[in-house]
Specification:
Keywords: Hydrolase, Signal. The protein is about 15% helix and about 45% strand. The protein is mostly beta strands.
């Protein structure tokens, strides 16, 4: 069975991309800070990487609102994550499940008796940049998709954030990053291919503090490919750090495999 590119976008973004975001219990919303106009781009980047945190697992629930301009969906899902190793997502009653590792992207849908089991190649094609588990995880933790220490950037002030643009424009796509001034977490990430009419924009609307960690509170994702536009809003609820978790996942017998064009 072959899927249209538009239908693939819905599954890829809704079923996998937003499966990776999270938050925590006992949280407080972080207020905005004030920029220091004297900071260099190098200092802003250094301060961002000082804010890194380590954990073993995350688990909880999230609410996802999705729209493609023609239809709208809202769903609450259960979420489990072992950092750098595995992501697990389950809709109520296990109707839809997803399991993602650094080498594998897999999900199944009991409503249609269908499944997909493959890699990140179609997500890379969909969003116009080379993606892997680590990059997607970084993006959804409020960290940059690319390591900012690998390039030289110019810094400006925009929307009360530090805005970073590469000194040397990329040949394949353009990038822009904004970092908020209080905790030096990402405020906006934007990757675009104007000549291909492709855009991926991630806006971190709020952050929250859980114990010593600063995590995204709400994220808006915009994905544009030609005439197709997808909007995703994610609200994070009741997450916990470092619980012992398992990741039950087995594709049911008799399901039809989703074959991508």
């Amino acid at each position: 069975m072959k899927y249209s590119f538009k239908r693939l976008q819905k599954w890829a973004i809704l079923g996998i991309f937003v499966a990776l975001v999270f938050s925590c219990k006992s949280t407080s919303v972080i207020k905005s800070g004030t920029v220091d106009e004297n900071l260099t781009a190098k200092a802003v980047i250094r301060n961002h990487y000082y804010s890194h945190f380590n954990f073993k697992t995350l688990s909880g629930k999230m609410r996802i609102d999705y729209s493609d301009g023609e239809s709208t969906q809202s769903v609450s899902v259960s979420f489990r994550m072992e950092k750098d190793k595995a992501i697990w997502l389950s809709a109520p009653l296990g109707i839809v499940k997803a399991y993602i590792t650094p080498d594998r992207v897999s999900f199944y849908n009991k409503l249609d008796n269908e499944y997909f089991d493959g890699n990140f190649s179609y997500l890379s094609q969909l969003l116009g940049t080379d993606l892997n588990f680590q990059k997607v995880q970084n993006l959804l933790l409020g960290e940059p998709l690319f390591d900012l220490r690998d390039e030289k950037y110019m810094v400006d002030i925009a929307n009360n954030n530090y805005q970073l643009k590469p000194k040397k424009a990329g040949d394949l796509f353009k990038t822009l990053f904004q970092i908020e001034p209080l905790n030096y977490r990402m405020a906006t990430q934007q990757l675009s291919q104007p000549w291909e009419k492709r855009l991926l924009e991630i806006n971190y609307k709020t952050y929250q503090k859980v114990n010593k960690w600063v995590l995204p509170g709400e994220i808006d994702i915009l994905a544009v490919d030609g005439d197709n536009t997808n909007n995703i809003k994610v609200e994070f609820r009741n997450m916990e750090f470092n619980r012992a978790l398992n990741f039950p996942y087995n594709i049911p017998n008799g399901f039809k495999e989703i074959v991508l064009n």
